[in-house]
Amino acid sequence: MSNTYKSAGVDKEEGYKTVDKIKKAVGETHNSNVLNHLGSFGAFYEIGGYKNPVLVSGTDGVGTKLKVALDSKKYDSIGVDCFAMCANDILCHGAKPLFFLDYLACGKLDSEIAAEIVLGMVAACKDNNCALIGGETAEMPGMYKPGDYDVAGFCVGIVEKDQIIDGSKIKPGDKIIALPSSGFHSNGFSLVRKVFPDFNEEFEGKPLYETLLVPTRLYYKDIHKVIEEVQVAGIAHITGGGLYENIPRIIGDGLCATIDASTIKIPSIMLELEKRGGVAREEMFGTFNMGVGMIVVVDPEHAEKVLHLLDDAYEIGEITEGSEKIDLKF
């Protein structure tokens, strides 16, 4: 018998099935700016209506949260995570997401699983007025075991040059406002899995994996509701490294984000991890978002309006003078 690609472990037909399962749904994310469709070598997106446009791009994956999804056989939410991790980053600069591309790698392709993952991305794209215009599915036996998948994405957004938010306007006295997270989002799952090895155990009346797999919150509508009404000095997406690593990324020299940790509404699952794993509070805040998915920094005169615009937002601190960039007071 002669060798074939299929005998080497790559089933092209399963790839075709995946495309068939997602093609219609992906097309529903397209708008008049998308000039071609799935199947081309490159995706075309026409830009119009901007005076001095700047493209803002971000790329990310979902880390080992994917392991929880695969072991629990729940695949749809992980696609939302992949999109959110990319799109929330570019929101920090005031950008509106334009289009998204995905990369899906596996050992042996299952079109049902692949389609569920991508359809999660489709749902997230629709929620953010963003087009899913392309992607790549790579079946790589020998690199990945059968049943293993990896997911990554790439998002491009746009903002007028004179409206870029980069933290350069942050000043002493500005207020720091927290937008709650929906849970762990997609960070710290190597520690999560170490402390919670059984994803099927019961937590608050349901299987633990349901809590762990709540998808990363999408902040597009919230952030743009605010920046359309208020001049925002800085925005930080709280991902890996928690508040300690992400807030200093937008704080200039000589300034410090002084935060009262006691005001932060920590999710019960994180408190349970802290207790069960014997994890120090400082380590928790340096690993997880601790219930704060994003922060916005605004002049004090705008703080009340932001809180009014966002029902679940709340103030956690202010900008002071100092050299540490962040002072988390427990």
UniProtKB/TrEMBL annotation:
State the SUPFAM superfamilies in the record: PurM C-terminal domain-like, PurM N-terminal domain-like
Q: Give the Gene Ontology MF terms in alphabetical order.
A: ATP binding; phosphoribosylamine-glycine ligase activity; phosphoribosylformylglycinamidine cyclo-ligase activity
Where's it found, cell-wise? Answer: Cytoplasm
Q: Name one GO cellular component term.
A: cytosol
| Biological-process GO terms, alphabetical | 'de novo' IMP biosynthetic process; adenine biosynthetic process
Keywords for the protein's UniProt record, in alphabetical order: ATP-binding, Cytoplasm, Ligase, Nucleotide-binding, Purine biosynthesis
Q: Which residues form a coiled coil?
A: none
Name the top EC class: ligase
Q: Name one Pfam family in it.
A: AIRS
In which pathway does this enzyme or protein participate? Purine metabolism; IMP biosynthesis via de novo pathway; 5-amino-1-(5-phospho-D-ribosyl)imidazole from N(2)-formyl-N(1)-(5-phospho-D-ribosyl)glycinamide: step 2/2
Question: Principal localization?
Answer: cytoplasm
> What region holds the PurM-like N-terminal domain?
54-159
Q: What Enzyme Commission number(s) does the record list for this chain?
A: 6.3.3.1
Q: The organism sits in which domain of life?
A: Bacteria
Outline the extent of the PurM-like C-terminal domain.
171-324
Q: Which reaction does it catalyse?
A: 2-formamido-N(1)-(5-O-phospho-beta-D-ribosyl)acetamidine + ATP = 5-amino-1-(5-phospho-beta-D-ribosyl)imidazole + ADP + phosphate + H(+)
Q: Which family does it belong to?
A: Belongs to the AIR synthase family.
Alphabetical list of PANTHER family matching this protein = TRIFUNCTIONAL PURINE BIOSYNTHETIC PROTEIN ADENOSINE-3 (PTHR10520:SF12), TRIFUNCTIONAL PURINE BIOSYNTHETIC PROTEIN ADENOSINE-3-RELATED (PTHR10520)
Q: Which protein, by its recorded name, is this?
A: Phosphoribosylformylglycinamidine cyclo-ligase
Species for this entry:
Chryseobacterium polytrichastri
Gene expressing this chain: purM
